[in-house]
Amino acid sequence: MTLRLRLTALYSALFLLAGCALLAITYLLVARALPEQSLLSRGPVDYSGAGGPLRLELPPAFRETLDEEAARQRSTALHQLLVQSALGLALTAVMAVLLGWLMAGRVLRPLRHVTDAAHRLSPDNLYERVELDRPDDEFKELAETINAMLARLEAGFAFQRRFAATASHELRTPLTVQRSAAEVALADPEPSVASLRRMAGKILKATERQEGIIDSLLVLARSQEGIVHPAPVDLAKVAGTAIDDVTSDSDGNGVSVTRDLRPALALGDQPLLERLVANLVDNAVKHNVPGGWTRVRTVASQGHAVVEVVNSGPYVPPSVVASLFEPFRRHGDSRSGPRKGVGLGLAIVAAITSTHRGWITTQSRADGGLQISVGLPMPPPGRGPA
């Protein structure tokens, strides 16, 4: 059954119920108003004639005849009322079905308009919107909700296209380096050991860059799948390990890292949270100035485990801060320097935070660098780290 047919049936059924209720009430009221006995048979009848007042007493047999006639007329009247009312109800019920069918079609006309617009949509024309010239009602709200969903879908498809194009470009760059190094080596008919070693070094660096990009893409994809088995994770311990890894790296560019690590239990996936904190610390050291500084702090605050990373570095305009969390977005020339960036570090941080239903706040420092805070939900009371 279509929705129009179901609405018509519902309208008709409600009308019939209301009609039957009205018929029953009318029948009871009329039955109560009609007397069951003749008025003449209830007692002596006072009559005022020319000779003065008279009191007539009807014989019992005559009174019974009058009562029988009154009962018969009452029964006939009620029967006629019932038959004629049922006939009228049947005729109006047919009219109610027809009117209900027409009204249901009129009411559902905007819904058909929305359905037709949805059928026309495809990934190639997500820019189209459902237009309803109506007052503010439920159908108008439905159209606005669908338009908002289409806007999100359009943004998502555009993001995927940009992501695929940029990822292809990023993966093609090291392949081009490898190909060029191999072609240069093959062009030399008598290559020396030193030239071959230089070629091997270039190919090795390009391969490492490819591995880094692929690893980051895999983590980014995994972070968007959701958490299967969440467990309590102490961000203080995770941050301590990340700081130790960064400070042991010889490419730290002389950046000093200070820590203020207090216990902060977060509920989530431990490998993903380790990657989140490691990316924050690594990003703060990587995008810094020679001899700069980085401060890492963890704390439990208002039901959230918070990790805060503040660093010195080049000035970042507030207008570009939000774009840093998009894949393959870099501020300045992040491709050069001793610690080249892929542009996926903060995008992975944003994806992991979203998966854990956390929040991120980012502020640009006036004297250079960023202050990034990530808050993650804490486990229920009494549930400690595994």
UniProtKB/TrEMBL annotation:
Residue runs in coiled coils: none
Organism: Streptomyces liliifuscus
Classification lineage: Bacteria, Bacillati, Actinomycetota, Actinomycetes, Kitasatosporales
Family matches, as SUPFAM superfamilies: ATPase domain of HSP90 chaperone/DNA topoisomerase II/histidine kinase, HAMP domain-like, Homodimeric domain of signal transducing histidine kinase
Main location: membrane
EC number(s) from the headed UniProt entry: 2.7.13.3
Residue span, Histidine kinase domain: 166-380
GO cellular component: plasma membrane
Key words of the record: Kinase, Membrane, Phosphoprotein, Transferase, Transmembrane, Transmembrane helix, Two-component regulatory system
Protein's name according to its UniProt entry: histidine kinase
Reaction it catalyzes: ATP + protein L-histidine = ADP + protein N-phospho-L-histidine
